[in-house]
Design goal:
The protein has 6 helices and 5 strands. The chain is of the alpha/beta class. It has a 5-stranded parallel sheet with strand order 2-1-3-4-5, sandwiched between helices. The two termini are 17 Å apart. It has helices at residues 4-7, 20-32, 43-50, 69-79, 96-105, 116-127; strands at 12-16, 36-40, 57-61, 84-89, 108-111. The chain has a domain at 11-102: Rossmann fold.
Length: 132
């Protein structure tokens, strides 16, 4: 007999950072912790991939060349309203526009240098992985 928790589909997470090595490392950590994560190095890649695969969560750096993580998240949310978004910004960020957008769209903002355990707790909470 299978356990309902064993039958659950792991949350699919898109991870983006302009430094692909950072995104790949974070995706690997998420994969080791019960998520199915894929790394990207641009907002444009995030949006394009979301037209094919619908992520449960987008974890993205705010600052990227070209389309920012915030812009990509807003576009993805237009087509996938249930997608959760975690943005990481510089720890000293005082960008009130970013905070207004995050508040209006229920995005989570974490400091760019947040501990991996902080991100995992955040993802567990917003995906209900820990409660299952």
């Amino acid at each position: 007999m299978s356990n309902a928790a064993d039958d659950r589909v792991p949350p699919f997470v898109f991870v983006a950072d302009s430094e692909l090595e950072v995104a790949n490392t974070l995706a690997a950590i998420l994969n080791e912790n019960g998520y199915e994560a894929v790394a990207f190095s641009s907002g444009e890649q995030l949006v394009e991939a979301a037209t094919v695969i619908k992520p449960h969560v987008v974890v993205s750096a705010v600052s990227m060349q070209g389309m920012t993580g915030t812009e990509a998240a807003l576009q993805i949310r237009q087509s996938i309203p249930e997608c959760k978004v975690v943005l990481w910004a510089a720890p000293d960020s005082t960008d009130t526009r970013l905070r207004r957008i995050a508040s209006a769209h229920r995005f989570v903002i974490l400091p760019r240098l947040a501990e991996t355990s902080t991100l995992l707790r955040c993802l567990d909470r917003i995906t209900s992985l820990a409660a299952a």
